[in-house]
């Protein structure tokens, strides 16, 4: 007899990590799985929103991974979707950087960069690179130190500083060097120049930053996740509860006993009625800060204080429908220009022509990064739409009069911030959470790890494999999740 049959598994969050874990556990048909999601749709940051005949991701999401397991999983989920006109298409990446009214190819192309910067600036960049190779910064503490050591200060200030500070809202010398080493590891000016000239011949070994093809579901990134949800729901013992926000996590004797939620669609009436979910195991992707603050009883003050210091950067996307086709050939345009607030423009039509029902329209998604307690965050939708239109015209991309309409999306915790003290605070939180025997942490905010969908999924595979692998052992509560957390943080 299977003594663990019908144990209650709660997964918090129906983003890529939560859905992957739900999928892997529910397919064993041994447990009751309930995925609790505060949003009205699945997909988390990787969802797709339909508006007036156009489809918008939260910043277009490309599917790219070095993991065969993830790639096979994606393709398997998308099987059968082509019958519905939703193929998993393979695209060649085209991305540029906008700087001083010039578009630079990304990854850098030697001639293009020199012509764009001008011979003098190009020469100064090379001098600054030689200088840093001769006298590198010895104590690398910040993002600025790390990138300057790889590229020289001049190229850092042109191609990294403005955009990075827009994303993070803090000075580059206050951002931990971890972020650079995770995002652009294995990449340096010498590699950039090498690949700029000889990249064609060495594509297979190119660093991920330079990968030039990726996959995309024809009807939007979020459709892969809604298909995953459909497959999970085919199992009678699995459910996904939308509009259900986790606000309290009751625990006793180092075990989580139950989870309290409220229905976010009920508005002001929601707080009068809580739902309690009794659980045997919990897989969480909610932000670590919120997880700690939801614990009942609360941990000691030092843990609460560390959790409160974990910060997040919010993202506003201004999604516009333009009455024109072929606006630009780019998938993404990085805006390295201080004179406008937007950080990136995503052209949804270049991911798939099916992102716009009207073939003469283009769906553009403009990304604005902001802390949620700032004046910028509190701007009205009308003000933000107007700002987007003005800035698109200012960079010479679209005439304001061609913009038909648009809508605003806000994500409160789009980026876990890697400030200089985050590691210290994270360790305090992590060490405290290790005491729980039936809690598994996964995903981007669930681990406070700036990662893409594939890495969020790998953390879910890791958690579920350890859970399922250890399940038949005698002492199930000593399952390998402690090791799992250490590996991922
Ligand atoms: C602008 C932008 C562009 C990106 N582009 C790419 C890309 O091109 N390719 C790529 O691979 N990745 C990309 N990413 C990263 C990708 O979005 C994430 O890696 C991925 O979504 C992480 O999955 P997750 O499940 O860990 O977290 P999330 O997607 O954040 O999902 C977590 C879920 O938990 C829910 N939740 C949170 N708190 C609670 C609570 N208290 N109760 C109930 N539910 C809760 C949230 O609503 C959310 O649905 C991008 C991210 C951003 C912001």
Characterize this entry briefly.
By secondary structure, the protein is α/β, with parallel strands linked by helices. It has 15 helices and 20 strands. A 7-stranded mixed sheet has the order 7-6-16-17-18-15-19, with helices on both faces. Strands 9-2-1-13-20 form a 5-stranded parallel sheet. The protein has a 4-stranded mixed sheet with strand order 12-11-10-14.
How would you describe what is shown here?
The protein has 15 helices and 20 strands. It has 489 residues and is an alpha/beta fold. Among the domains are: 170 residues, FAD/NAD(P)-binding domain, CATH 3.50.50.60; 104 residues, no CATH class. α10 runs antiparallel to α11. The structure holds flavin-adenine dinucleotide. The site of flavin-adenine dinucleotide (FAD) has 35 residues, from α1, β10 and α14. The site of flavin-adenine dinucleotide has 35 residues, from α1, β10 and α14.
């Amino acid at each position: 007899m299977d003594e663990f049959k019908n144990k209650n598994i709660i997964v918090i969050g129906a983003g890529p990590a939560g859905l992957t874990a739900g999928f892997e556990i529910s397919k064993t048909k041994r447990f009751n799985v309930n995925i609790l999601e505060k949003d009205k749709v699945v997909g988390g940051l990787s969802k797709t929103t339909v508006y007036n005949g156009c489809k918008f991701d939260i910043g277009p999401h490309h599917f790219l991974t070095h993991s065969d397991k993830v790639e096979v999983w994606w393709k398997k989920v998308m099987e059968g979707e082509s019958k519905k006109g939703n193929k998993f298409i393979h695209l060649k990446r085209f991305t540029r950087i906008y700087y001083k009214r010039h578009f630079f190819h990304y990854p850098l192309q030697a001639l293009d960069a020199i012509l764009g910067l001008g011979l003098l600036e190009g020469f100064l960049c090379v001098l600054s690179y030689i200088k840093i190779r001769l006298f590198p910064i010895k104590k690398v503490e910040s993002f600025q130190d790390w990138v300057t050591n790889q590229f020289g200060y001049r190229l850092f200030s042109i191609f990294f500083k403005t955009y990075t500070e827009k994303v993070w809202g803090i000075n580059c010398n206050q951002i931990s060097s971890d972020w650079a080493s995770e995002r652009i590891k294995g990449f340096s000016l010498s590699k950039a120049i090498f690949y700029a000239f000889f990249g064609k011949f060495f594509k297979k070994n190119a660093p991920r930053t330079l990968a030039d093809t990726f996959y995309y579901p024809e009807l939007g990134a979020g459709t892969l996740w809604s298909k995953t949800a459909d497959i999970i729901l085919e199992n009678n013992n699995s459910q996904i509860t939308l509009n259900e926000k986790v606000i309290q996590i009751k625990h006793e004797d180092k075990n989580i006993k139950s989870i309290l939620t409220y229905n976010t669609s009920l508005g002001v009436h929601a707080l009068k009625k809580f739902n309690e979910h009794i659980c045997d195991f919990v897989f969480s992707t909610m932000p670590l800060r919120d997880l700690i603050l939801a614990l009942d009883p609360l941990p000691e003050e030092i843990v609460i204080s560390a959790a409160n210091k974990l910060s997040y950067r919010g993202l506003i996307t201004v999604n516009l429908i333009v009455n024109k086709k072929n606006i630009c050939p780019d998938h993404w345009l990085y805006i390295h220009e201080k004179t406008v607030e937007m950080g990136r423009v995503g052209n949804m039509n270049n991911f798939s022509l099916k992102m716009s029902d009207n073939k003469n329209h283009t769906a553009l998604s403009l990304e604005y990064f902001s802390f949620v307690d700032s004046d910028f965050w509190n701007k009205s939708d009308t003000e933000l739409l107007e700002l987007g239109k003005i800035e698109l015209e200012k960079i010479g991309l679209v005439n304001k009069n061609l913009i038909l309409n648009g809508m605003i999306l806000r994500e409160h915790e789009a980026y876990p911030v890697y400030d200089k003290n985050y590691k210290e605070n994270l360790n305090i939180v992590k060490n405290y959470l290790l005491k729980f025997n039936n809690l598994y942490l996964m995903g981007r905010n669930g681990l406070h790890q700036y990662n893409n969908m594939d890495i969020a999924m790998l953390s879910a595979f890791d958690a579920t494999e350890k859970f399922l692998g250890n399940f038949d052992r005698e002492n199930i509560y000593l399952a390998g999740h402690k090791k799992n957390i250490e590996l991922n943080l």
